[in-house]
Amino acid sequence: MNFSKVLILCSFLFVQFSFAQSISGTISDTKGNALVGATIRITATNSSIISDAKGAFLLSDVKTGDYNLTVTHLGYKTISQSIKVTDGDNTFNFILEEDLLYLNNVIVTGNFAPKTLLSSAATVSVVSSKTINNRIPRGTADLLSEVPGTFVDASAGEVFTRVYSRGISASAEDDMGWYYASLQEDGLPVSLVQHSYYGPDLFHRVDITTERVEAITGGSSAITALNAPGGIYNFISQGIHEKITGKFRLGSNLQDSDNNLYKVEGTIGGALGNDWYFNFGGHYRRDEGIRDTDFTFGKGGQIKYNLIKKTKNGSFKFYGKVLSDQTNRYTGVAATNWENPQAAFGQDFNSTALLMPAYTGSIPDGRFISDNKTNSFDPSQGVKVQDISFGVDINYELGNNWSIRNNGKFSNKIANWQTSISNAFVSLSNPLAYFITGSPFPIGQVVFKEAASGQELARIDNSGILAGEPFQYIGEGTLPNDAIMGTSAWYKDNTSKEFIDQLTIRKKLDKHDINFGVALGLAETKTFTQGTFGFVTYEPNPKMLRVTLENPNTPVEALSDANGLSNYGGLFFVNARADVSQFAAFASDRFILSDKLEFDLGLRWETINHDGSKDRYAPFTSPGGIDGDATTSYDNSVNAPTGEQDTFDFNYEYLSYSLGVNYSLSNNMALFTRFSKGNKAPELNYYFNNFSNIEIPNKGEIQRIKQAELGFKWNTKDFSLQTTTFWSELSDIGTSNFEFDEDTNTVFYTPVQFNTSTTIGLEWEALYSPITHLNFSFGGTIQKAEATDWKIYDAAGSVTTDDDIILDYSGNDLPFNPTSMFNLGTAYTTNKFNTFLKWQFMGKREGNVANAFQLDSYSIFNFGAGYSITKNLTANLLITNLFNSEGLANFFGANSFGASANGVTKEFIQDNPDASFVVVPVLPRASMVQLSYSF
To answer: What is the end-to-end Cα distance of the chain in Å, rounded?
Structure first.
């Protein structure tokens, strides 16, 4: 009996081993280069492997029989082939053709389940690691100018950027530039909340750890993103590597010594054994700024990591990021000549930054006056950000075609702004230059000294300004342009703790691919903002001014402190906090009617709660101000909480849907159409900005977004095309202006008006490779964006409402939406050498909804060349804005303190033909040399 058991066991083992085989082979491209990182998978099993550095692979323990084997690699067309595993030789070699626009690649953005771009009824663009590496690091938004249909304004630098698509733009101006779009890392939003000077670009940096970017500009984002119906830009990190691989890169620019940029970055990843894998990387950079400042413009870096465990039925990924960075943002430059703007007052569109110089000041914190607490202020800091985040991404096959994915992360964010806002011209004959200090009567002899040295620069008599007469210099000293800069020392402290999670359950049937689940977002955020006036010279390289009133036979009155700061905390005050909770339930079905035709329908119900409060405030009143000294007027008007609060607790609920149809004309050609109805609930700036010392009686309006699109995709061996016609309507747009009241010396927002816009257009992306080493790319957008029903509240520069009017601009062109924009490029690549040239064109745009001022079209050319010194070592030269274009990216309105773009009407220009105004030029030319080592 025992002998029989042994015999049966031996027979079983013999059968198992005799039928267990190995599959091996190599993966290469059409040029004969080995492809590392290709995924080889045997369908109907969980067996998969990734090719090594030589392109080789080995799959063990495969039983004899018939299988379907697929080979996938990012940027190459997928191969799916029937194979027969026998007792003999099972070697299979594959040559992958380049997938020029990734149409045959699997994309994960804008869909609840992965699918190829060609079979997706949506417009998705992929920005490859090669494209990322071919750009000088100027920030997240700048990179996204590679995406057709996406408008980008990165003229401020890495932060304070604007990104939107298809005319869905109205609330995304100035300090809310990502209002409609979701900036994501590995499928989850970078940040859950937005408000003024607090957006997702603060907490995102592009470096070598990014494998690719998937960007969706179509309507399916309405059902796949948290409160972001205008598009998704998903930065995807490095994945599994079977062997230890890595890349390290050192970059340095070729600017002059005052504008240096150094960046070191690296990534390493591979197998740890027992199906564990890791990736670790990041960067550090020091940037002196592309424009002239007397301080380091940015410094810092990040570390990113993930740890992946493959199991029989799926995978677990533990990931995280530690970001500690400091950067700043450029503001506007003065110009004259409304028809052909030219830099004014000695400024230059390429080199002038017009920011406060570096110094260390101390400003009383209005929240803690009784404790004598102050906030240190140094405008050279800009914004200092920290983001510590970690999460877990679980993918698991449950069996019977059921699967589950849960991706969740926690983050702790801090953003502290210390910078200057506004840099307007204020004439020394303007009473504002003196009364803004908080002094009861700053009339007489005013002395201006350079704060840093104490040297007297000018002494003036302003006795006649109240009667409309000009000031008079006393002595020989003068101030540049007979003016000071109307600017504010802007201190803003933000914190946010966030948790974001998405659970998706998938069931695959014969004709259906069903996905359903929930998404959750929780945030606890606080914000404090304090605005203080700064006395600064109005010149290209500004200096801080110490200002005193020195009338005969009276004590000297200090209108500013030793650093040139005045009216401590009197210009702006916000102290608020809020809890944000978002919950969404979603479901979608991909219904496959035939081999050629399929539908997908998605629904998303979302509810958002904003529960918070905002402090009422009033100027602190005490004889002599904070310090009790009647001769120091700069601390007499510090805003402080009164003890009262205005609370809000509002819910926003909406249902969004999207219906798509995809028809395959062939294996390489498809048509699709989609209609979507999305929604956008207000962000926290609705409460923080629009209600000062008054009750918050009503919740904000949910913006409604309708989108329709019809697209065509075509992929051949040497040509790829993706083109889409689109229509969008955005309604219930809340619009408000930022204004200054000279009588009360306060900044305020005008009452909100609700408006509607529509856009129709065509976008395309094409790539042609006529010969092996050469390709041409062409992508762009033609559109017509209209302010269909649009009104602006004109407060006439005062908080009183007696002289207010509402202006109707319905039918005008929607501002900042170009009629055309495109990228045209060519690239030549061999095993040793590569080079590229790209032309970026930005068409004419209206500077405001009044259509009174136009921003002219401009072109930017980017160039690069690289050489492989050895198999592992490469050198690259990159130049952006090759011909130093002076294109204008933005318009801030008249060159006066508190002015806005909407204040410039055709009548204003007619009455003020020689007036100066503020524009924001594109960033000037930059060049960089990079040395990279790969292994």
So the answer is: 59
